[in-house]
Amino acid sequence: MQEVLKDVSKCAFCGFCEWVCPTIIASDNLRHYGPRGRVNLIYMALKDGIITEKTMEGIYTCLLCRACELQCPAGIKIASDIREFRKYLLEKGYVR
Amino acid sequence: MDVKREETINDLKRILGTEKVFDDEALIKLYGKDAIFREGSAIALVLPESVEDVSKLLSYAYKNDLKIYPQGSATDLVGSSTPHSDGIILNLQRMNRIKEISVVDSYVVTEPGVRLFELNNVLSDYGYMFPVDPGSVKSASVGGAINSGAGGMMGAKYGTMKDYVLELQVVLPDENGTIMRIGSKTTKSRQGYDLVRLIVGSEGTLAVVTEATLKIVPIPENVVTIAGFFPSLEDLARAVIDIKKSRFDVLIMEFVDDLTVKSALENTKTKISGEGNMLITSVITSIESADRVLNSLEEIFKLHGATKVYKARTQQESDELGLMDIRRNYYAASIQIAAKTRKKETNKIIVYPEDISVPPSKLVEAVRRIRELEKKYGIPMTLAGHISDGNIHPNIWVEEEDKERLELLPKLIADIMRIGIELGGTMSSEHGIGTTKKEGLIEELEHKGGLKALELMRGIKRLFDPKGILNPDKVL
């Protein structure tokens, strides 16, 4: 997961990714339902070991549509990071 | 969980409903961050859906001495939206309805959670726009823009947020959570002391904005754009003076200094290229006068030594040619350069955009002094800004764990702010004070013999917020 951590570390919290995200729009702007939120939830999990109910909610509501990736100034591969992180959650037994 | 904390969360859930109050650790941490990597904590996160929710929360907070930290999309750059562990994060992004658009009366009524970019998407259907366009326009919310007194590139023509707020509905941090309406839906309004403009730029320290009536303007018939590269900043500045003297209807006038142009070309994808300092100017024209204006601008550019000049007759042509790319992507390019040059790839980077203004005639001197500071401190930066109003944004970056540079950063920032103050300008143009510029505010007022103003500001804060519970320790 080192590569994922490197990638999500690039997030500058600018939020430019959010306006195109279908799930943050559908959720009435819940931050963890958007790409900025998800990237930072992954960072929190991998850096500080914080994984909560809302982490799971954010990560598993992503549609992997990649609309956000076109907007990200730092070039973060958001969808593939989320996919890798889902594998990690599975391997670590957070989901079955 | 301690008893008091648990009691507070249960009370809030009872008063507001369980679906509006959150105490999930990850969620609080996520809403506790801002765009300059300040991180706070909180007892709970509240996501209100109506002005009544906000009123109930503020009334409860007043009666229980609970601190409230309001925020929009948390992309502020001075720490004004960062919470502390002793309070509640009040995020207003769920209040995101555009309630009314009146073309005849030239206004839009909106809730605070609407993003400026989305607002403009909707207004464009009517041939209108909201002209305040901060760099964060894609993420910035109406409430955040009001509270930070935002500006932007089109400030050259249209001014800043203070010029566009007609009427506000706010909630006060008092016993009743009083809902108050101030201003009017007309451009002209002499309603005693101007409380609307007092709220604009108050960074969530006086009242919580729950609805705003904003002035809107027609989308210009046509905009021509010219971009060119000048060997020296002095040449570029002389071109600016001639453009101003020529009485064009300037919409945007931006510069990017030579070192920044070079690193942007090396590190990002751009459609145009050149060497030296870049000047980009957009002017409002009719369709018929586009060529004439553009040719006059080109003459001025070439007269002052522009080596390479790009022109666009329309906004669409400018977008296709990417004339604004280097400047529009300035913040993004700074992030990319910072990310690429990290010593350790798992380190977070902290991109800190500075925000001084000097009278435009002093801009060349200011840029020279800022670049000298870069050498002195050995901390890299990019440099660009709104040249028509002398607003310069040096983007400085450091990475976490670089203790040496992190220690030097506040000193460098203080020195940059001093340049603005000494040259007759200001240490904060459009980002606000928050927590990072409080000392700069004192220095600026002291420099101009205005320290008494601080006392007046503290008095105003006490009148609005007698218990000091609303976004405490910010601004003052």
Quick structural overview:
The complex is a heterodimer of chains A (about 100) and B (about 475). With about 100 residues, chain A is an all-alpha fold.
Largest sheet of chain B: 8 strands, antiparallel
Instruction: Count the E strands of chain A.
Output: 0
- Briefly note the CATH topology name of the largest domain in chain B: Alpha-Beta Plaits
Distance between the termini of chain B: 32 Å
**What is the mean pLDDT of chain A?**
95
- Stretches of chain B where pLDDT is under 50 for at least 5 consecutive residues are none
DSSP helical segment count of chain B = 17
**Large-scale geometry of chain B:** globular
Largest sheet data of chain A: none
Q: Give the ordered list of helices and strands of chain A.
A: HHHHH
**Ranges of chain A with pLDDT <50 over ≥5 residues?**
none
Report the CATH superfamily of chain A: Alpha-helical ferredoxin
Q: State the distance separating the first and last CA atoms of chain A.
A: 19 Å
CATH architecture of the largest domain in chain B: 2-Layer Sandwich
| Rg result of chain A | 12 Å
Task: Say what oligomer this is.
Answer: heterodimer
- Percentage of residues assigned to helices of chain B: 25-40%
What does the model show?
- The complex is a heterodimer of chains A (96) and B (476).
- Chain A has helices at 2-8, 22-26, 35-48, 53-60, 78-91.
- Chain A is globular.
- Chain A has 96 residues and is an all-alpha fold.
- The mean pLDDT of chain A is 95.
- Chain A has one domain (2-91): Alpha-helical ferredoxin (Fumarate Reductase Iron-sulfur Protein, Chain B, domain 2).
- Chain A is built from five helices and no strands.
- The longest helix of chain A has 14 residues, at 35-48.
- Chain B has 476 residues and is α+β, with helices and mostly antiparallel strands.
- Chain B has four domains: 3-92, Uridine Diphospho-n-acetylenolpyruvylglucosamine Reductase, domain 2, CATH 3.30.43.10; 98-218, Uridine Diphospho-n-acetylenolpyruvylglucosamine Reductase, domain 3, CATH 3.30.465.10; 222-328, Alpha-Beta Plaits (2-Layer Sandwich), CATH 3.30.70.2190; 335-462, Alpha-Beta Plaits.
- Helix content of chain B is 37%, strand content 21%.
- Chain B contains 17 helices and 19 strands.
- Chain B has helices at residues 3-16, 25-31, 51-63, 116-124, 142-148, 155-158, 195-199, 233-245, 258-267, 290-303, 315-321, 325-328, 330-340, 363-377, 403-422, 438-447, 452-464; strands at 21-22, 44-46, 67-71, 87-91, 98-102, 107-110, 128-129, 165-171, 179-183, 208-215, 217-218, 222-230, 250-256, 277-285, 308-312, 349-353, 356-357, 381-386, 391-399.
- In chain B, strands 12, 13, 14, 15, 16, 17, 18 and 19 form an eight-stranded antiparallel beta sheet that branches. A five-stranded antiparallel beta sheet of chain B has the order 5-6-10-8-9. A four-stranded mixed beta sheet of chain B has the order 1-2-4-3, sandwiched between helices.
- In chain B, helix 8 runs antiparallel to helix 10 (290-303).
- The longest helix of chain B is centred in the last third of the chain and has 20 residues, at 403-422.
- The mean pLDDT of chain B is 93.
- The A-B interface holds A 2, 5-6, 9-10, 12-16, 18-19, 28-32, 37, 40-41, 43-45, 47, 50-55, 71, 73-75 and B 22, 24-27, 29-31, 33-35, 37, 47, 73-75, 91, 93-94, 96, 113, 115, 117-118, 136, 138-139, 329, 331-333, 335-336, 339, 345-349, 351.
